[in-house]
């Protein structure tokens, strides 16, 4: 037998009589009594978010942008959300040589070890082609 159930999430849902409780429809016993969600939360807590008041536009390139906007009577309310890009480890510019040479030291060491093992295990044959 089907029953018409009304709940906040679904305006009107026709469910089998075994699932007439709205709570049993939205919650899973396997999901630690939490609402269904994609992504496999598995009951872990969310990452702590930094306090939004710690980011300041002063002393960043965004300050110049704010001044130019203010001269036109405008304001960027989201500038503070971009200020993190200009502070801490993100403030230093990445150079092309850093990008190209990143990992070169370890890669060259691995190449040397692999070359030594190859010449030790499989020495080149003398003579012939």
What does this protein structure show overall?
The protein is mainly α and 129 residues long. It has helices at residues 22-26, 61-71, 79-82, 96-101, 104-121; strands at 2-5, 13-16. Strands 1-2 form a two-stranded antiparallel ribbon. It is elongated, with a radius of gyration of 31 Å. The model is unreliable at 2-6, 10-15 and 22-29 (pLDDT under 50).
User: What's the total helix number?
Assistant: 5
| Widest β-sheet, arrangement of strands | 1-2
Strand content: 5-15%
Give the terminus-to-terminus CA distance. Answer: 85 Å
Radius of gyration: 31 Å
- Mind describing the biggest β-sheet? 2 strands, antiparallel
- What structural category do the secondary elements indicate? mainly alpha
Q: What are the segments in which pLDDT stays under 50 over at least 5 consecutive residues?
A: 2-6, 10-15, 22-29
What form results from the Cα inertia axes? elongated
Overall pLDDT, averaged? 75
The count of β-strands is 2
Question: Secondary-structure element sequence?
Answer: EEHHHHH
Helix content: 25-40%
Summary of the model, kept short:
The chain has helices at 22-26, 61-71, 79-82, 96-101, 104-121; strands at 2-5, 13-16.
Features:
129 residues; mainly alpha; two-stranded antiparallel sheet; 5 helices; 2 strands; elongated; disordered N terminus
């Amino acid at each position: 037998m089907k029953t018409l159930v009304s709940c906040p999430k679904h305006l009107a849902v026709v469910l089998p009589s075994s699932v007439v409780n709205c709570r049993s429809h939205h919650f899973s016993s396997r999901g630690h009594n939490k609402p269904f969600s994609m992504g496999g939360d598995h009951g872990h807590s969310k990452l702590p978010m930094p306090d939004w008041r710690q980011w300041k536009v002063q002393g960043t390139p965004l300050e110049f942008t704010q001044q130019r906007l203010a001269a036109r009577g405008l304001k960027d309310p989201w500038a503070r959300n971009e200020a993190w890009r200009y502070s801490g480890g993100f403030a230093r510019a990445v150079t092309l040589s850093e990008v190209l040479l990143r990992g070169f030291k370890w890669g060259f060491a691995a190449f040397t070890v692999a070359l030594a093992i190859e010449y030790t295990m499989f020495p080149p044959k003398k003579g012939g082609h």
